[in-house]
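Risk register update: the risk of archive-format incompatibility is retired. Evidence:
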Amino acid sequence: MVFMRFRPQLIASTLSRAPKPSKTLASPPLAAAAARRRSLTSSLSFSSSSMAGAAPSEDALRRALAERQAAVDAQAEAVRSLKAAGVKDGVDAAVEALKALKIEAGAAARRLQAAVGSGGGAAREEMRQAVVNTLERKLFYIPSFKIYRGVAGLYDYGPPGCAVKSNVLAFWRQHFVLEENMLEVDCPCVTPEVVLKASGHVEKFTDLMVKDEKTGTCYRADHLLKDFCKDKLEKDLTLSPETAAEFKHVLAVLDDLSPEQLGAKIKEYGIVAPDTKNPLSAPYPFNLMFQTSIGPTGLSVGYMRPETAQGIFVNFKDLYYYNGQKLPFAAAQIGQAFRNEISPRQGLLRVREFTLAEIEHFVDPEDKSHPKFADVANLEFLMFPRELQLSGESAKLLKLADAVSKGTVNNETLGYFIGRVYLFLTRLGIDKSRLRFRQHLPNEMAHYAADCWDAEIECSYGWIECVGIADRSAYDLKAHSEKSGVPLVAHEKFSKPKEVEKLVIVPSKKDLGLAFKGNQKMVVEALEAMSEKEAMDMKAALESKGETNFQVCTLGKDVVITKKMVSISMEKKMEHQRVFTPSVVEPSFGIGRIIYCLFEHSFYTRPSKSEEEQLNVFRFPPIVAPIKCTVFPLVKLPELDAAAKVLAKELTAAGISHIIDTAGISIGRRYARTDEIGVPFAVTVDSATEVTIRERDSKQQVRVGINEVASVVKQLTEGQSTWTDVEFKYPSHIGPQDDQE
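Archived output:
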């Protein structure tokens, strides 16, 4: 490589004996000149490769920096040796060579910093601070109980924040509940313990926690490891390519690590408590549910629900009959959920009380096709299958039809909802280039799940999971059926009786109890959840060997099953109907996370007319903007105020949110302060018969009759027409009321 042409050992080799002045005088100046030439050649080399579009990889840049730094170290040692040997004539030239090498190393460091900092750590932080400051100043949201110094993980939405949230939920209902003909329910937040025991939340709804061994302060273990790896990758330019690859691999499989593996990595990397630098305990599970009691006796244990889904599952029987005993059908619910987060952070992204919007789509497990899949099949967007994650690659553009046909996405129904989620998020205003669908890694998924994907949105905090789309098979309904004793099943009636062959798995609970003691229940559940192929393979193994190894995912290990522990058979029966437990495909939306990412994606700045300062703007699509339009009398005149009030009544009658701003400041300043809360349209009243309508982002204006304003704005905000349509229909207006401050 170019930068390896300089060989410090040529100088170092003269250090084994006292150098002769006549030979050392020429050598160092030549070395310095060579180093300068290399620096220029290196710059041109990288410049030409960039012009050719072949940007060097991070790995190549790390290797380049390491080799340049090695050359610097070797030359520095040569300089020290020359000085120690008392060779005065050669020292200056050797120092010049060292300076040239340091310039090369500095250039290599800057190239690497540009590559690893393409995420723009400092720029992201600056942008985030600008967004958050604007949101809090304009009362989109603020910390709850602020006068009492607040409580971590709890926030209040102010007037514009409430309006944005309400609009997002209204669009969610339109996009999913109405267009998909879903059944909406509303269930209590307080949930009896028995329900959450059946669902597995009491036992397994945990995060791994570590404690400061001296102060007792608690931290999420995976967050500490994640922050350490990201910080090293972004800030430590001396990392070897191998170490950088290791940190990237840890980040890729972070959710896959067991408590022991997580603890080992924390210990290996020397991670300590962030605030005190004290040592940390080993990771251990912490249940995230808020426990309460139902009734005055305290004997009936309950929990604040950690999700809304269980209310739908326990009502399946009634919903199925309400729907005419037909599948598929979907039920939906919007409501509050509660999670006692270990260390809430990142504003609205990780809170202790939040709004979920969840869908449970019940489908025949033998037919997961979807009649409307063709509507989304040709969508193409960033997808991140598990194979790409495990190989260290990035997300790629994939067509949804191809992902389903190749089995990357398990089935059409799951694929259909992935497509619908993509359309929902992008129509809200999420930047499609910063949206990806990531498939869960094998150990992230429960043993019963067929496939799971997360819609992740990139913001200043990185890639954030905002929607989960999972094929949960029949686990939830089976679990509640077993615990409650009420069969949560569907029926398919045959036109005439059919002879069917049914798999019958009968675990011997007595023998399993003797063998596995307290783990008996998990082994029984795993045996009963076997597919027909798995069961018949086990039957063959038991008949030939008398025992076989069997993986129980909930135990995280293999167990030995003997012939007497389970009976497996296929039985033929004449049946008039097929009775089965439906599978469920579940899209689950974190509304607060989506809204925060929307805030960041919508935020930008532009110079004021004087260009002395930057003006903040939220480019909310009209459908989610907190206020649809503002009404400005151009000057304070009675006739203009009267016209503005009449116009306001017409807007109210049309259901259009608006504000009237009669402040005695310039029209430009009034535009700027409504742009700052994302109002898409401004109506300036400068006569009793005609007004101007201004569009926020283009700042273009048209002239419209005052009686048409409500109709025009309503069509714009409901998506029935675009600003281009309006500009085509109405005359443009260029007046003195330009944006200025």
